[in-house]
Amino acid sequence: RERQHQLEMQQLIETFPLFAKVDEHSQEELLLLFRPKSALPGERVMRKGDRGDGMYFLSSGAVEVRLPSGAVRLEPGAFFGEMALLSGGRRTADVIAIDFCQFLVLERRDFNMFTARHPALRAAVSEMARERSHMNALN
Ligand code: CMP
User: Fold this and answer.
1) Is any atom of ligand 1 closer than 6 Å to the C-beta of 72?
2) How far from each other are the two terminal CA atoms of the chain, in whole angstroms?
């Protein structure tokens, strides 16, 4: 049973490299905070202009981030929805499921609580948000 759990954790870490930023105990804690969610092909997962309710980790399927310059496709292992949480502002783009999708959602208050205690994780997420907004400003 313990072995099974270890394998599951290992798999999660392999899928989401971001997980490796926190220690084993905190990985367990994250697992308890995650809310599973799914979407059908064509379903809107996030709407531009909405208040951010959480950060999404894509565990299976694929989504498209719809930007004025075109669509960016995200695959399993990617995360999205971090920008509105970090800025305290609104969703910067529509996100559409383009396949059957499964997500692990870290809700806003859990995101704030958890990242406050894990500066390395917060820094990695902020860095990604910075790259994305830089890319969007150029296009
Ligand atoms: P947020 O603004 O909360 O909601 C829309 C999300 O789309 C955003 O967070 C990012 O996670 C994601 N996103 C925005 N721009 C890009 C981009 N250029 N590449 C990949 N993902 C993006």
Assistant:
1) yes
2) 50
103 vs 113: CA distance, rounded Å: 20
Tell me if 64 CB under 6 Å of ligand 1. no
- Give, for all 139 residues of the chain, the pLDDT tens digit: 788 888 888 888 888 989 888 998 999 899 899 999 999 999 999 999 999 999 999 999 999 999 999 999 999 999 999 999 999 999 999 999 999 999 999 999 999 999 999 999 999 999 999 999 999 999 8
Question: Which 3 state secondary structure label does DSSP give 110?
Answer: helix
Domain range 2-138, CATH architecture: Sandwich (2.60)
In the reported structure, the alpha carbon of residue 130 is separated from the centroid of ligand 1 by a whole-number distance in angstroms of: 10
